[in-house]
Each structure stands twice: as structure tokens, then as C-alpha cells.
């Protein structure tokens, strides 16, 4: 799963909300499945918890500024969001195996 392309009628802040909502849904789904995970997946999950919390905090702080500063903030947070999507995918795959 990749981040959405910005729709022309959406502000960067609205697009950021969409990306965050998608990641939050993936996070919540994986959090429920963690009891099924093997050691490696649990270690990766635990290892990203502080970074996830920091990402969520950063998103809340920059949301208002996103509409003003727009693209630079959205691009930076988009890169971090893609890292989380990759991590969530690896963890999800590890749970399935």
C-alpha cells in the first residue's frame, strides 16, 4: 500500500489527515494481531513504538502549518509515512507466515 496522490481539491493538511488515518488503521489492525506474531515481528513492532508515537506527535504539531507550508511538510511526513507502511507490511507478512 502506498500513500495517496494529493487530490487537487484537498489542502496539504487534509491530505495529511488521510495519510495519518490510513496509517492509524494499519497500526490498530496490527496491534490487535500482535499476539499471533513471531519473535522477529514482535521485536520490530516494539522497536518502532517510540518512533510511531513521535510521528503522531509531530503530525499533530504540524497539521495547522501544513496548509501554510504545504508541500515541504507533506513530502517530509510522507517519506516517514512510507517507512511505517513498509514496516507494517513486513510485520503483517511475518504474522501470516
Describe the overall structure:
- The protein has 97 residues and is an all-alpha fold.
- Helices cover 81% and strands 0% of the residues.
- It has three helices and no strands.
- 15% of the residues are buried.
- Mean pLDDT is 82; it is low at 1-7.
Topology, element by element:
Layout: H1 12-33, H2 39-69, H3 71-96
Poorly predicted sequence stretches spanning 5 or more consecutive residues: 1-7
Gross morphology: elongated
Radius of gyration: 14 Å
How much of the residues is beta strand, in percent?
under 5%
Order of helices and strands: HHH
Distance between the termini: 19 Å
Structural class: mainly alpha
The number of distinct β-strands equals 0
Count of individual helical segments: 3
Summarize model confidence as the mean pLDDT: 82
Helical content, roughly?
over 70%
> Tell me about the biggest sheet?
none
Question: Top keywords for this entry?
Answer:
disordered N terminus, about 100 residues, about 80% helix, 3 helices, mainly alpha
In short:
The protein has 3 helices and no strands. The chain is mainly α and 97 residues long. Mean pLDDT is 82; it is low at 1-7.
Amino acid at each position: 500500500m502506498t500513500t495517496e496522490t494529493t487530490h487537487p481539491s484537498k489542502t496539504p493538511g487534509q491530505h495529511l489527515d488521510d495519510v495519518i488515518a490510513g496509517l492509524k488503521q494499519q497500526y490498530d489492525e496490527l496491534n490487535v494481531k500482535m499476539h499471533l506474531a513471531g519473535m522477529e515481528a514482535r521485536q520490530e513492532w516494539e522497536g518502532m513504538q517510540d518512533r510511531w508515537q513521535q510521528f503522531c506527535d509531530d503530525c499533530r504539531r504540524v497539521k495547522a502549518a501544513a496548509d501554510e507550508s504545504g508541500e515541504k511538510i507533506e513530502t517530509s511526513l510522507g517519506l516517514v509515512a512510507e517507512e511505517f507502511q513498509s514496516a507494517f507490511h513486513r510485520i503483517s507478512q511475518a504474522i501470516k507466515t
